[in-house]
Design goal:
single chain, 245 residues, mainly alpha, membrane, MotA-like, protein transport
Length: 245
């Protein structure tokens, strides 16, 4: 679990409540269920209108990376590629058949299987690069879905405030109730800004970084596996792969 994300969320929200307390504000006024509903549910609904259920499911599956990030061990992958390069040089490419499942992800296994099957190196490079880009684009589409939720949240917060003001104006004959209603109304704006800038956008940046790192990892695998396919010297291949980090 990524405790940095949890710590960041705790610090961010604590700062808001602490600042409110220092200003003499009532914490209870910051807790408003209708405001949370219109901001969170409304933003999600607006995003679904511009997308489809498949994109939504993929986005929420990707969302788990914010707490359980993927691990891309470049050092282990380099060591494995180097061993495969030495093995293919000593024996043959066909000797790598037993190592197809030695990688911990389908992309690598599929790429090595294509090498064992004797796919032309030039065609191999093109296909693997296309696969890597498709995986990247699909993940970034999910990231964009989540980012759209944050984009709509501030506007929904303003709408919630307007709705709250309408209800507050119904109590013009009661100044005390009117003041309370106006205070609660502006909580929606706070929720919209807070939901977008303290939760959604930071998570989007973190997910984008993981997706970029996955692409870099795939590019290293492509260079390594294609280097093996063309019979590149293992030590030269090792030097080239060391540039990936």
């Amino acid at each position: 679990m990524d405790f940095v994300t949890l710590a960041g969320l705790l610090i961010a929200f604590s700062s808001v409540f602490f600042a409110n307390w220092l200003g003499g504000g009532d914490v209870v006024l910051l807790l408003n269920l209708p405001s949370a509903i219109i901001v969170i549910a409304g933003s999600l609904g607006a995003t679904l209108i511009q997308s489809n259920i498949k994109d939504a499911v993929r986005a929420f599956v990707l969302l788990k990376w914010s707490l359980f990030p993927p691990v891309y061990d470049f050092n282990s992958a380099r060591a494995l590629l180097n061993n495969l390069a030495h093995k293919s040089r000593r024996l043959s490419l066909f000797a790598l058949e037993s190592d197809v499942r030695s990688f911990d992800n389908p992309f690598s296994s599929r790429a090595l299987q294509m090498v064992v099957d004797g796919v032309d190196p030039d065609l191999l490079v093109d296909r693997l690069n296309d696969d890597a880009v498709r995986i990247y684009d699909k993940k970034m589409k999910s990231v964009a879905f989540i980012e759209s939720i944050g984009g709509y949240a501030p506007t929904l917060g303003i709408m919630g405030s307007v709705l709250g003001l309408i209800q507050a104006m119904a109590n013009l004959d009661s100044p005390e109730a009117l003041g309370q209603g106006i205070a609660v109304a502006f909580v929606s704006t706070l929720y919209g800004q807070g939901f977008a800038n303290l939760i959604v956008f930071p998570i989007v940046k973190k997910l984008s970084g993981y997706v970029d790192r996955e692409l870099l990892y795939h590019q290293m695998l492509i260079d390594g596996i294609c280097g093996i396919a063309v019979g590149k010297h293992p030590y030269r291949l090792e030097l080239e792969l060391n540039t990936y980090e």
